[in-house]
Design goal:
By secondary structure, the chain is mainly α. The chain contains 14 helices and 4 strands. The protein has a two-stranded antiparallel ribbon. Strands 2-3 form a two-stranded antiparallel sheet.
Length: about 350
């Protein structure tokens, strides 16, 4: 492997993380300065900020003629966010799930995932699809603002988390400089990451789609990793879950929409993504509903289940890419035993929980 390409991959990831941090800090403090509540900042500015590496990479990849990385990054990031980030966070501390997420945000994530898949069935996310996706993120943002206006009290801990009490960005010039500097770092980091990822993919003999689904997706999701894991360690378990669900919605609606609008001819979608990876993303979104609804808690064993499935997913990608002889038996065990058993277990748990809830109301 080229050491130069690997070095630029690491440097690109570092610039993306630094740029996202600056953007989130500066934009959050500026939003609070002009009177936006911390809740709205968290649902919009912070969620968009932690997803800004994915946006920068997908737009850069689309403009550079590497749609496999662009779409693979979106799909891979959503799978990574739920299975690995929530899984690791739940292993640290069982995660509380608010009823708001179960009743609205998770069903919305499922619906948007299905819509995204339907848009890709013709092998392309076109300009019209992009307009619909961007309209969706605008509508979601308006909803978030409306929800924020219903909040009468300001949570000091939440405000401190996102910069209200952070004196480092207390002055307007520093806030504007942080936003501008963050954007510059994101653009440079995305350029280095995409170019080096393409070189590494060619040297390893794997497709750009696989690189987008794994290395690029994991790298651009590091801000979400930091946010959710730190929130779990601090006991802010609701933030850990909400950050992942909000980021997934932004990935599909905002990044998918903007990348398809700025890419000439829209984003071409590989057949392998339509047949396998996007359905996996949808299945992961559906899995959240019974797990989140059972006691409104993600238990440690459920976190371990998520992590295990992410390892299995990456294993499948590696076996399929290398055409390894172990692929058929591995697929047979997963499809014939592990996945059906998990589905039945989750449905039974969900049914018992609903029965308990109904009994308690009588």
């Amino acid at each position: 492997m080229s050491l130069g390409a690997l070095l630029f991959l690491v440097l690109g990831l570092a610039l993306l993380i630094a740029g996202a941090e600056l953007l989130v800090r500066g934009a959050s403090r500026l939003a609070l300065r002009i009177g936006i509540t911390p809740l709205v900042v968290g649902l919009t500015v912070v969620a968009f900020g932690t997803s800004s590496p994915e946006l920068a990479v997908s737009v850069q990849a689309g403009l550079a003629g590497q749609p496999g990385i662009a779409v693979g990054n979106i799909v891979g990031s959503n799978i990574f966010n739920v299975l690995l980030i929530l899984g690791l966070a739940a292993l640290i501390l069982p995660l509380a799930v608010s009823r708001q997420l179960v009743r609205f945000d998770v069903p919305l994530m499922i619906g948007v995932s299905l819509l995204f898949w339907v848009m890709t069935l013709d092998g392309r996310i076109g300009r019209f699809d992009g307009v619909l996706l961007v309209a969706g993120i605008v509508a979601y943002t308006i909803y978030a603002i409306h929800l924020g206006r219903r909040q009468s009290a300001v949570n000091d801990d939440y405000a401190r988390e996102f910069g209200r009490v952070d004196g480092a960005f207390d002055r307007l010039p520093l806030q504007l400089a942080a936003i501008a500097g963050g954007l510059v770092l994101l653009v440079i980091g995305a350029h280095w990451l995409v170019d080096s990822a393409v070189i590494i993919a060619r040297l390893l003999g794997v497709s750009e789609v696989v690189i987008g689904l794994t290395i690029v997706a994991a790298g651009t999701s590091l801000p979400e990793v930091a946010t959710s894991v730190v929130a779990a360690l601090r006991g802010e378990r609701d933030i850990a879950v909400g950050n992942v669900i909000g980021s997934n919605l932004f990935n599909l609606l905002s990044i998918g929409g903007i990348a398809s609008l700025v890419t000439p001819g829209g984003l071409e979608v590989a057949a392998s993504l339509v047949r396998f990876d996007i359905p996996v993303m949808i299945a992961v979104a559906f899995a959240c509903l019974p797990i989140f609804a059972t006691g409104h808690l993600i238990a440690r064993w459920e976190g371990a289940l998520f992590v295990g499935y992410y390892i299995a997913y990456v294993t499948y990608l590696i076996l399929a890419t290398t055409e390894h002889a172990a692929l058929p038996p591995f697929s047979g065990v997963m499809l014939g035993f592990v996945l059906p058993l998990t589905a039945v277990t989750l449905l039974v748990l969900w049914g018992r929980h609903r029965h308990v809830d109904d009994s308690s109301r009588i």
